[in-house]
Write a structure and sequence with these properties.
single chain, about 100 residues, mainly alpha, globular
């Protein structure tokens, strides 16, 4: 058995470090904006509770209902129960703080 065979069998690279099979990368602010905009299903320029719940579910939240309610507290500045385009930045900042990741590889 050669070193290459051992490396391949055990997923190691020189130096003994495990070879990463999948890397987790944090969503950027622009990526998060794109996710939230994609879930504006009725294209009215604002996110409802249902749309937010679907977005947080898509991001991998274990508790999308809780995240939705917390997001509205952070981002819904006018208290209308929606996150408008003007309030999107506050929503994105809330989501950035949660550390959502994309699996690469």
């Amino acid at each position: 058995m050669t070193l290459g065979d051992i490396d391949q069998k055990y997923g190691r690279i020189r130096g003994g470090n495990p070879r990463p099979k999948h890397a987790l990368v944090l969503f950027s602010e622009e990526q998060l904006k794109a996710v939230f905009r994609r879930f504006d299903c009725d294209k009215d320029g604002r996110l409802s509770k249902v749309e937010l719940k679907k977005a947080f579910n898509d991001l991998g939240s274990r508790v999308p209902v809780f995240r939705t309610l917390a997001a509205l507290q952070h981002a819904d500045e006018n208290g209308d129960g929606f996150v408008s385009e003007e309030e999107l930045e506050a929503l994105v900042q809330y989501a950035v703080g949660l550390g959502y990741t994309i699996q690469m590889g």
